[in-house]
């Protein structure tokens, strides 16, 4: 163990990359399910070539903004105050502050969430590569927010 490690890092298992992938897939499925529910609520059945088919509407700008806000709040509130999203709960991991070892709070969770724009590029490939290259298994959002993802 390095002397530069925080007490949390000395006792926490940060080697949870596989679990992070599983948690991301679960969270994306949960948020995708929200989109499907909205599409079902606002979709319609149309006839194409005499065959009835379900038509999913193109979301309005307002609906898109609402979906993005709900997604951001999901991550900010769940990670900020509980340290876990639904996916992280199921995968057995949580987000903690580097020094405190406790849920990071809304400010740090907001930083993590904003960085998802970059970390999420190419289907989260950017985050995956950065996590594998980082000695503390942090994505860019974790580095900026001073958080770790650890096994529960």
Automatic annotation (TrEMBL):
Membrane topology label: Multi-pass membrane protein
Domain RDD residues, every copy: 17-145
Key word Transmembrane helix present: yes
Keyword match tRNA processing: no
Localization terms from the record: Membrane
Keywords assigned: Membrane, Transmembrane, Transmembrane helix
GO cellular component labels: membrane
Pfam families xref list: RDD (PF06271)
TM region positions: 20-42, 54-77, 113-133
Official protein name in the record: RDD family protein
């Amino acid at each position: 163990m390095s002397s530069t490690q925080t007490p949390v890092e000395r006792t926490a298992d940060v080697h949870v990359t596989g679990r992070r992938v599983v948690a991301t897939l679960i969270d994306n499925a949960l948020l995708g399910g929200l989109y499907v529910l909205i599409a079902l609520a606002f979709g319609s059945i149309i006839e194409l070539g005499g065959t009835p088919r379900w038509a999913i509407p193109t979301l309005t700008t307002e609906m898109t903004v609402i979906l993005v806000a709900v997604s951001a709040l999901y991550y900010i509130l769940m990670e900020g105050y509980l340290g876990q999203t639904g996916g992280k709960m199921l995968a057995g991991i949580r987000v903690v502050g580097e020094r405190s070892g406790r849920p990071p709070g809304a400010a740090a969770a907001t930083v993590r969430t904003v960085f998802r724009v970059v970390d999420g590029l190419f289907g989260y490939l950017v985050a995956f590569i950065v996590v594998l290259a980082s000695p503390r298994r942090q994505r860019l959002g974790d580095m900026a927010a001073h958080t770790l993802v650890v096994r529960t």
